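Cast an eye over my tokenised protein here and flag anything odd:

===
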Amino acid sequence: MEEAERLADVVVVVDGGRVVAQGSPAELTSGTSAEQARFSARPALDLSSLRRALDPAVTVKEHQPGQYVLEGKIGPQVLATLTSWCVAQGVMPDGLTVGRRSLEDVFLELTGRQLR
């Protein structure tokens, strides 16, 4: 996927034999949830207080057990809110990264399946 993101002019996502999306890597990875903050922590954290503290346009979910993703406009205030929340929870946000979603993220979102 990383190679396709760097080299392809057009990407076609096929799921169950049908085309579910196609476009340039930039088109497929852009959108309202294009910016992300990701981190790891213990599984099943109660995210309700974090959701209340953030702008409603920023979504928070546990993507996989112990893998958390914030999507939306990720700026300094969002990161400050996230890290303050982590302090209050006694949680270290391991591997905290900020960036744009990848083609793999788009694939997972569209198909609900991991790459093989």
The mean pLDDT is 88. Residues 36 and 99 are 5 Å apart (CA to CA).
